[in-house]
Design a protein that fits this description.
By secondary structure, the protein is an all-alpha fold. It has one domain. It is 77% helix and 0% strand. The chain is built from three helices and no strands. Helix 1 packs antiparallel against helix 3 and helix 2 packs antiparallel against helix 3. It is rod-shaped and about 95 Å long. The relative contact order is 0.14. The mean pLDDT is 87.
Length: 105
């Protein structure tokens, strides 16, 4: 038999951290600055590349934000499931090993 232990509150903390990271990813938005730099160089090949980089960054940030939010939800869901399982087991054991009143012995 293996030793397996789940730290439910650590799972919850990881979920919060993933959610916080998602918000930070969205806050990192160099897109407008890249587009402005491209606008300052009309007709140059670099301008088109900066616009493409801006769009790609926006796509990446949106995907990363959704992925991190999904991961956060999965961690929170796992923590909730472990907590519910622990509570169910605790209630079952409390019932199974409850003291028997003297008049029922």
């Amino acid at each position: 038999m293996s030793d397996f232990d789940t730290e439910i509150e650590d799972l919850r903390a990881c979920g919060v951290a993933a959610s916080d990271a998602a918000g930070q990813v969205q806050a990192l938005n160099p897109g407008p600055g890249l587009e402005q730099a491209g606008d300052a160089m009309p007709g140059s090949a670099s301008a088109a590349l900066l616009t493409a980089a801006s769009q790609r960054w926006s796509q990446w940030a949106t995907t990363m934000d959704a992925d991190l939010d999904g991961y956060a939800a999965q961690l929170t869901g796992a923590a909730d499931a472990y907590a519910a399982s622990d509570d169910e087991a605790r209630r079952a054991l409390d019932t199974a090993y409850a003291p028997v009143p003297p008049h029922h012995r």
